[in-house]
Amino acid sequence: MNAQNPSFFKSVWFTALLWLIANILSFGLVGAMFHNFPLASAFPPDVFRLGGFRTEAAIAGFFFGFIPALLIGILQSLILSHRLSVSRWWIISSSIGVGLMHFLADGFENARDLSVSVILGGLAVGIFQWQLLRLHSWAVWLIPINALTWYVGWLIGIAILSNLGLLNIAWRPGLDGQTHGVLGLSVGLVFGLSSGVLWVRQHLNK
């Protein structure tokens, strides 16, 4: 379809494009913001030096994940509101998943594989979003889409970081923002594309 045609800007394709852009930007920004959250300095450094499971570190991780991730829900709800009646609870849907992911990752810092926390975070988001849109039969697909795309996006991000030489190097100021930003961009891209396809298919099949 010709993008110069005014009808394009009212089409589901344009909505899907906005959805993709919103997810890439918001996930990327949230990733970059996580370790640079303004109140992070209020917590003592040793909170994040974990042996086994540390409750205080897990709570701090949830807090620093939940608050910035509100941006994801805000941008998503703005896009969805043009096509659906979306509850305000949608805004915290991604925050719950990001918060849970960091709750587990920071609570079990010496875990060798963080993929479980990523998958569970995406799964939590999918279940929450499905509940909010449960009147739509297609919404159940948000559960596997969130879980799988968060995991695939995370794997892609890890591969990019490895190729850039940013994994397993000595910490320096701003490194966490870079690494989390790349991971966020990867997850936002994969999730935005996959959920955008679902969005387009369910509208075209009406």
- Terminal Cα span: 19 Å
Quaternary organisation of the protein chains: single chain
> What is the number of E strands?
0
Overall pLDDT, averaged?
84
The number of helical runs is 7
Structure description:
It is a single chain. With 206 residues, the protein is mainly alpha-helical. Helix content is 64%, strand content 0%. The protein has helices at 12-33, 55-66, 70-80, 93-107, 115-132, 142-164, 175-204. α2 (55-66) packs antiparallel against α4. The chain is globular, with a radius of gyration of 18 Å. The chain starts with 11 loop residues before the first helix and ends with a helix. The model is unreliable at 39-51 (pLDDT under 50).
Quickly describe the structure.
Helix content is 64%, strand content 0%.
Topology of helices and strands:
Blueprint lengths: L11 H22 L21 H12 L3 H11 L12 H15 L7 H18 L9 H23 L10 H30 L2
Helix pairs in contact: 1-3, 1-7, 2-4, 4-5, 5-6, 6-7
Structural descriptors:
single chain, 206 residues, mainly alpha, 7 helices
